[in-house]
Design goal:
Elements (H helix, E strand, L loop, with lengths): L1 E6 L8 E2 L6 E2 L1 H14 L3 E6 L3 H9 L7 E5 L8 H9 L4 E5 L21 E4 L4 H16 L2 H4 L4
Parallel strand pairs: 1-4, 1-5, 5-6, 6-7
Antiparallel strand pairs: 2-3
Helix pairs in contact: 2-3
């Protein structure tokens, strides 16, 4: 299986903490962590990051035929991007959303995650582990759906 991991605005500059790991890790270390975890699941990953909404939409639209699933952290776009929601709804590739922090208790405008309506699952507040949980969820989803045969991308 092959997954496309898409990260939205500001994630490229974020420092991450993870239980069991000393100090903070940077974005490239996060990508290495995801790649290593996916390799254990026999999943290949491609990564994409952009601070621009249109670039994220273009990447989602191009996923059909080259990825079996999408793991998406839309960053701040989660709360208002109907355009990303619609791209997820029409792209034909199952997607799971990851939010590093739980948005509840933050600003009131974060109470509705618009992008999540276009996803088959959502992992919020799990830190960087949420990415691997999302990948494992997609693997199970595709196997239950028969997707291992029907969505396989070489």
């Amino acid at each position: 299986m092959k997954f496309l991991v898409i990260n939205g605005p500001n994630l490229n500059l974020t420092q991450f903490t993870e239980p069991g790991m000393e100090g903070q890790i940077d974005f490239n270390t996060l990508l290495d962590y995801i790649e290593a975890g996916c390799a254990q699941m026999d999943v290949q990953v491609d990564f994409f990051q952009s601070n621009h909404e249109g670039d994220l939409i273009d990447e989602i639209q191009s996923a059909a035929g080259r990825a079996d699933g999408i793991v998406l952290n839309p960053g701040g776009y989660a709360y208002y991007s109907v355009a990303i929601l619609e791209a997820l709804q029409v792209c034909g590739v199952p997607a799971v959303e990851v939010m590093l922090a739980d948005p509840s208790g933050k600003e009131p405008f974060r109470s509705v995650d618009v992008v999540s309506f276009g996803c088959q699952g959502r992992f919020a507040g799990e830190g960087v582990s949420g990415y691997l949980h999302a990948c494992a969820y997609l693997v199970q989803l595709l196997r239950l759906d028969g997707g291992a045969q029907t969505h396989l991308v070489q």
